[in-house]
Amino acid sequence: MCDDGTCSFSFGTKIRTLEPVLAVKDCAQFFIGTSTLTQPNQIQVVQVKDDASDVITTQVFRHPGEVLSLASSPHDRQLLVTCAKQRGESSETLLWKMLETEQSFNQIGDDGKDTESGARMQNLEQLAAFPAQKVPVSEVAWNATTDTSTLASAHGTLLCTWQLNGGSVEAQNKLELDVAMLGGVTKNKANALAWDPHHASRLAFALGGSVRVWDLRAKQDSVSVEDAHPSATLSLDFNPNKPYALAGGGDDGKLKFWDLRGAHKPLLTLNAHSHWVWSTRYHPQHDQLVLSGGSDATVALWRVSSISSSPLVELDERDFMDETAGGAAVTDTLIRRVEDHEDAVYAARWAAGGDTWMFASVSYDGRLAINHVPSTEKYKILL
């Protein structure tokens, strides 16, 4: 269904993962990975028109096992890493290459199915498998700040970095986390990996409710935000324009924003969702905008101007008269809450190409929603 720049479709299968195709800049493309135990899984590449009037499937690939997470190469549109699990087996993480010779373009109908004969199913080419270390890989993050192909992976309480070398992955650095700092509780595992765009050697991650930063040069975790959330920090993202600024969502339904140079107290806390916050993303250019997605089946678009690199100087008079904002706090407020989903939203992502004011989200029941930043909000930022 498409209406006024908003589209939503049901793929008819469970979905946990959505990522923009980072290396494509001339149009908005997204990877979608299915997550079902009852039928074969797929990686789909979908392309969205700038006005969200049409969504087409450009490629469909067979994928072994349900897709638990995926990472798109920032340098090569054909490279993709997935963490996946087949029934009765341990999870595995694989580096894939997608062949581009058999692209097909098929429109998606309101039911999520191709309206034509169906996109031609293709096979992914496996280039390498990530060694399991002491436990299998649970998450991978690509470092977009360097020209080389560097990735980080989480293996329980072990973090590793890897260098792609042709068709293989080579281990570079390892950090064994000190679980004694958590009272010896080992059930917590590292997750929510996020590379620092201003310091190529720093990687943020969550461990239970805490947030830590691993400095690869110093070979130790250099920053620690204890009790960032009650028991689980679920999503992290660095501000693309402002050094040391980190946002995170957790099991308390809150979004918190930190200055890592003095992380004893958050700069800003927002009551974002009524349940867990699975997704947190700054806009890639305009850090006044932040997306969050939660298991309350909603996506929230936030303005956080007061802590951005370019606070909004002029706001519409009606904004200051908004009683719900209370006047003084109007620079940091909810712009819009998207309620197109009926199940937990595990991923909400900005488009990397085409109209970068566009954002997409997926929920576990298989619904994809496409939305835009309202024009009035864009003008406040651009003018």
From TrEMBL:
The keyword Kinase does not apply. WD repeats lie at residues 226-261, 270-306. InterPro entries: Beta-prop_EIPR1-like, EIPR1, WD40/YVTN_repeat-like_dom_sf, WD40_repeat_CS, WD40_repeat_dom_sf, WD40_rpt. Residues 25-302 form the EIPR1-like beta-propeller domain. One of its GO terms (biological process) is protein ubiquitination. Keywords: Repeat, WD repeat. Belongs to the WD repeat EIPR1 family. PANTHER family: EARP AND GARP COMPLEX-INTERACTING PROTEIN 1, WD-REPEAT PROTEIN. This is EIPR1-like beta-propeller domain-containing protein. It comes from Peronospora destructor. The lineage of its organism: Eukaryota, Sar, Stramenopiles, Oomycota, Peronosporomycetes.
